[in-house]
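To illustrate the input format used throughout this study, we show a single complete record. The first block contains the structure-token representation of the backbone; no residue identities are included at this stage. The design step must infer an amino acid for every position from geometry alone.
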């Protein structure tokens, strides 16, 4: 479920080309358990298998990600939602907390 939320954040109109085989990658976001009770997100080349880890997230970060997704969904369903300054403030606060719970790419040695 969260894999698709992370995938939405990565959504791009530009092709992603594999550094290893120079083929265009059909990006499918995957996740795996890492050491220290964290989760890693990556995609792999569907041609040669080259792996591209791009995000490490804590369990708390996943909760913030879920909340932000719910707020974005609510704002799409109800345009008035984003006009309420308290809702905007809550979203911004959630984003601030989320950013504290993520880091960039991880090493293969971090995988459980």
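Output of the design step:
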């Amino acid at each position: 479920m969260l894999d698709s939320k992370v995938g939405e954040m990565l959504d791009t109109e530009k092709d992603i080309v594999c550094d290893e085989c120079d083929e265009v990658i059909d990006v499918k976001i995957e996740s795996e358990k890492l050491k220290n009770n964290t989760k890693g997100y990556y995609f792999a080349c569907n041609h040669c298998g080259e792996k591209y880890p791009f995000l490490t997230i804590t369990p708390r970060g996943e909760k913030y990600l879920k909340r932000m997704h719910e707020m974005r969904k609510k704002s799409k369903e109800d345009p008035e939602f984003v006009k309420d300054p308290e809702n905007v403030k809550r979203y911004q606060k959630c984003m601030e907390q989320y950013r504290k719970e993520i880091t960039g790419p991880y090493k293969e040695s971090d995988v459980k």
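Structural context for interpreting the output: Helices lie at 2-10, 59-77, 85-100. DSSP finds three helices and four strands in the chain.
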